[in-house]
Each structure stands twice: as C-alpha cells, then as structure tokens.
Amino acid sequence: MPALIHGIRHDDPVAIYRGEKVLSVSKRLGRVCTALGNLDFAIDMFYALYLPYPILLPAPDVAGESELSYRILKSIMESEDFQHLRLSTIANSTISTLVSASFIDTLSRELSREGLLLDKEQAEVSVSEPSLNAVVRRALRQVAKEAHSIKKLQQLVAFGTQAGTGSVFDLEERGDDVIKLARNADVQKLLGVLSLFPKIARKVRRKVMPFSRGELRGYDIGSDLERIVPTELALPRLLFRIKYIESKLLLYEKLIPKDIGPLYVLVDKSGSMEGEKIKWAKATALALLIKARREGRDFFLRFFDGMPHALTCVPKRMRSDEVIDLLKYLSRVKSGGGTDITKAVATACDDLRGPKVRGVADVILITDGEDNVSDLLITRKLRSANARLVTVMVMGENRSLKNVSDSYLRVTKLDEGDILRVVEA
C-alpha cells in the first residue's frame, strides 16, 4: 500500500523501524484486525500523530483491505477528537509510538465488537461511513484518556534519571505494560499526584555541602585560595594580604551533593486501611518517590499487614523499568489482614543495615495506628540502622508511636495538602 501521509516513504529505514515498533506493541496487547495490523498503516498512524502538520494524500486507486485502511485513516484525521489527542503526541516519538499502538488495539476491539474486519475475508465487507466514523470516534475518546496518563508516566520516568542509567526506549520496549498501566483506573488516580510536582520541587531541594572542587553555584567571601576569583589576584599586594587575613577575598561558591541515606516508605495495608486511606497512602508513596528523586536518594517501599510484604527498590541510578514495576506493584496491592507495626519497622531497619547504605535514612511509616507497638525494640532497631522514624498517622492516634518517632504527623483530610505536609517532613 502506498504512503498516505505527504512526505513519508514506507521504504525509509526510520519509518520502517517506527512502524515495526508500533505493530510489535499493539500485537502484544491483543488481537489486531487485518486492516490495521500491517506495517504501512502503522507507519502512517505514527506520523499522523507525530508530525505537526500531517497532510493526507488523495485516495489511492486501491480496493479491499487497502481501501479500508485509507478510509479508517481519513476518518481518524478528520475527527476533532484526533486533534485533541495530538496535543500529547506532536514531536514526541515515544508517546506517538505508544498511542499509535494503543489506538490500533482499541480500534480493533471496537471493530470486533461491531463484527467488522476480523479477518481477511471480512476485510472486503463494505462498512458504511457513519458506522466507521462512530467506531473511530469511540476509540479516539478512549485513547485520549490513556495518552494523558502515558505522558505523565513518561514525565515520572524521566524525572531524576541520571546519565547512562536509562532511556525513553525502555518505555517503548515495555510499551504493552505502560499502556496497561495507563488504562488502569487506580494508576490514573495515582498519577494525579504529578500535578503536585511544581510544589514539591519548591519545597524539596537536593542537600548540598561546600567543597573547593565542587559545582560552581555563585560567589562567596572568605580566604580559601582554591576558590579565589582571578580578579582578586590583580589587587595590590598589601590590599590582597589584608583581605586574606580578614577572610574577605571574593571566592567562587562551589558545592557538591550531600551524601544522605535512603528514603524507606512503610505502608499499612491492613483491613482498617481499606477505601480512601489506602488510596491516599499509595499517592503519598508516589509523592515520596518524587522527593527521593529530587534529593538523589535510594527509594524503598514495603507494604505490611500482619507481616511485611515484598520489598521494592528504586535506586538513585534509576532505570525506567524499575518505575514501571513499582507502579504495577502499587496497582495490585489491596487492603486486608491484621497489623504488626513493630515487625514492619524492625524489618525496615534490618534492610537498612546493609554495607551499601550510607548516611541517615528516613523511615516513613504510613498507618492508622491500630496496633500495640514495642517502644524499646523499635528504638533499638532505629538506632542500630542509623535511621529516623517519621510516622504519618492516617485518621488515628498511637501514643507509643508518637514517643518513638522523630516526627509525628496526623492527617485527617486525606487531600493534596496532607501529602505535601508529609513530603516536607
């Protein structure tokens, strides 16, 4: 089938690569109908989303499957919903790839639901224009919601990633997982916490310390000759000596990141946390991940009820797939079971006693406090792990925890303001 977008060649290696990537992801999502599951349509779909001003060429003199592919693409590009969708995809190859794959999968399912275009024989069936437009419009509206979440996922993955530790191509390689996450209603709500990023960025800064060979940040006054501004050397010798003795030389201010310990989040998933409590706790955990990325810290997350559950780690040298795995984990966790806070804190402290852990760690305990805790054991464990405990009490109270905590917060509204209070702590 000839190219349907002006200026695009289907024999171009880059176009072929993009089309194959779209097809690969869409086929991992589910069954793709004949008219959509070909390389030519995948290429045109990608560039229709990616290019700032895609121009649809006149209809080619073809019939059957190729004619239907053209009619589908024409219906897509003439839709107002498509123009809204493109706000998230223009000039963004990763999102264009994932949204193209999601749309092909979604439209295939919509067409299948209507009993159309399931195989090569049915590809020849005449589909009325109104029916086709209606199906395309439904698919576009579904994918528009996913595109917004995919863009947020890309922002979350990209934030704080150090050079050499990951790539946007990791998102494409796990494109089916990313799209499934974007379709998950719980994940969509969790990603809403990204709207707090500007406020988190203002409240949280990476901790630094002075160092003569660090990163230049500004100017200072002192007597450190390693940081002296060259113009000071042009001063008369006597004046230079006086300024040196009085520590009034103009110096460069140089800083390096301060080595601080990891951020370890313990989330209570017991039965008493069911409903809005556990949803708020998950959103807070994601906000604390953003804080850890901002401060250049390792991030640990463990849920607990009557016993601690699996540990998830996102190191400071983060890879994209580690964030994807974390979100998959968050989406699966449901509340239920008893509560053993003492065992959970003790397990966290044991995790933090490894040889690779440096600096003072912060253990953030999010719970409604419905448990009797052992003050002495928790205090001893925290001291041995060189950790401080920040307790976030969710609509509850626990005097024993308050006594052993370095910081104790009570939250009652379960809103964004409470999340920001926890991040600041």
Number of domains: 3
Number of helices: 17
Q: What structural class do the secondary elements suggest?
A: alpha/beta
Q: Which residues sit in consecutive blocks of at least 5 with pLDDT less than 50? A: 120-125
* Intertermini distance: 60 Å
What's the arrangement of strands in the largest beta sheet?
5-4-3-6-7-8
The residue fraction in helices comes out at 40-55%
Radius of gyration: 28 Å
Mean pLDDT: 86
Strand content: 5-15%
- Tertiary shape: flat
Largest sheet descriptor: 6 strands, mixed
- What string, H for helix and E for strand, traces the elements in order? HHHHHHHHHHEHEEHEEHHEHEHEH
Q: What's the total number of strands?
A: 8
Structure description:
- By secondary structure, this protein is of the alpha/beta class.
- The protein has three domains: about 15-185, no CATH class; about 210-255, no CATH class; about 265-425, von Willebrand factor, type A domain (Rossmann fold, 3-Layer(aba) Sandwich), CATH 3.40.50.
- It has 17 helices and eight strands.
- The protein has helices at about 15-30, 40-50, 65-75, 80-85, 95-115, 130-160, 170-175, 175-185, 185-190, 195-205, 235-245, 275-295, 320-330, 340-350, 375-385, 400-405, 415-425, and strands at about 210-220, 250-255, 265-270, 300-305, 310-315, 360-365, 385-395, 405-410.
- The strands form two sheets. A six-stranded mixed beta sheet has the order 5-4-3-6-7-8, sandwiched between helices.
- Helix 5 (about 95-115) crosses helix 8, helix 6 (about 130-160) crosses helix 13 (about 320-330) and helix 14 (about 340-350) packs parallel to helix 15 (about 375-385).
- The N and C termini lie far apart (about 60 Å).
